[in-house]
């Protein structure tokens, strides 16, 4: 099959129109008209992920985060980022990224996170689009109330991280209505609180924003941006479903096993 066939289906599922302005979504590198046989899903496109793709003969990388957050200023291959681009081109690997459009899609990344976090009742977009169904973040209720401390431990285990950062005035407070926003969402804690959230799960909370959160007596649990890696198997399952539905000639669809979390906790 052609890469363009998979790209068209991704964009049908997570339309580009849902993406934030300026988000570097879409094809990142390669020829959309080339034949593809093996698809790998990943959160980030990093040199070690590319090496994995080469070792496993992947010719299409379906990523969540864009590969080019910063444009290349030259093609000096002593730069690891440029060397990565060269490897991808040399091995004819197409790279495609669905970022904030996949965040906002229904069901999309934030629905998957809500499911993982057991937010199962009355789930709706935190920051809805006009259609009321798509949008950034999700908010809903747990089946049963729990404490901040207990839920923070559950979040830590769910996202398989060494630690989570908890911003709360009372770790024993009962919580049940939970908001989640994958990635950097600290500026949206007030929106979560205004919608009645008892706690907000998001990442990259800024130090001074943490003080504001405490002053507003809100609860925020930060498992770090790598929380979105939980989407990798869901992205692969999408491709497998489409493969079956449209009878695509793909040899394999698999999830990257590389941990791209840049943080080490000591």
Describe the protein's architecture and organization.
The chain is α/β, with parallel strands linked by helices. It has two domains: 3-102 and 229-253, NIF3 (NGG1p interacting factor 3)-like (Udp-n-acetylmuramoylalanyl-d-glutamate--2,6- Diaminopimelate Ligase, Chain: A, domain 1, 3-Layer(aba) Sandwich), CATH 3.40.1390.30; 106-222, NIF3 (NGG1p interacting factor 3)-like (Udp-n-acetylmuramoylalanyl-d-glutamate--2,6- Diaminopimelate Ligase, Chain: A, domain 1, 3-Layer(aba) Sandwich), CATH 3.40.1390.30. The protein is 32% helix and 24% strand. It has helices at residues 3-13, 47-55, 80-90, 100-104, 109-116, 148-158, 189-194, 207-215, 232-246; strands spanning 26-29, 38-42, 60-63, 94-97, 121-128, 135-147, 165-167, 174-184, 199-203, 220-222, 252-255. The strands form two sheets. It has a six-stranded mixed beta sheet with strand order 5-6-8-9-10-7. Strands 1-4-3-2-11 form a five-stranded mixed beta sheet. Helix 3 (80-90) links the parallel strand 3 and strand 4. Helix 2 runs parallel beside helix 3. The protein starts with a helix and ends in an 11-residue tail after the last strand. The mean pLDDT is 97.
């Amino acid at each position: 099959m052609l890469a363009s066939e998979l790209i068209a289906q991704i964009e049908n599922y997570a339309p580009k129109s849902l993406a934030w302005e300026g988000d570097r979504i879409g094809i990142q590198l390669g020829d959309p008209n080339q034949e593809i046989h093996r698809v790998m899903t990943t959160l980030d496109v990093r040199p070690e992920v590319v090496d994995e793709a080469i070792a496993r003969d992947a010719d299409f990388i379906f990523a969540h985060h864009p590969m080019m957050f910063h444009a290349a200023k030259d093609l000096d291959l002593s730069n690891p980022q440029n060397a990565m681009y060269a490897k991808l081109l040399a091995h004819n690997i197409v790279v495609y990224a669905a970022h904030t459009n996949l965040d906002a899609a229904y069901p999309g990344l934030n629905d998957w996170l809500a499911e993982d976090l057991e937010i199962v009742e009355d789930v709706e977009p935190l920051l809805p689009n006009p259609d009321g169904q798509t949008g950034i973040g999700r908010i809903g209720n747990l089946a049963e109330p729990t404490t901040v401390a207990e839920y923070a431990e559950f979040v830590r285990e769910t996202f398989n991280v060494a630690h989570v950062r908890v911003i709360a005035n009372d770790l024993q407070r009962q919580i049940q209505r939970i908001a989640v926003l994958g990635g950097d969402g600290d500026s949206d804690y007030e929106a979560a609180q205004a919608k009645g959230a008892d706690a907000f799960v998001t990442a990259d909370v800024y130090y001074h924003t943490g003080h504001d959160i405490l002053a507003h007596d809100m609860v925020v649990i930060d498992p770090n941006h790598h929380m979105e890696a939980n989407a990798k198997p869901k992205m692969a399952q999408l491709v497998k479903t489409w493969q079956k539905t449209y009878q695509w000639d793909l040899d394999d669809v698999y999830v990257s096993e590389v941990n791209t979390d840049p943080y080490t906790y000591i």
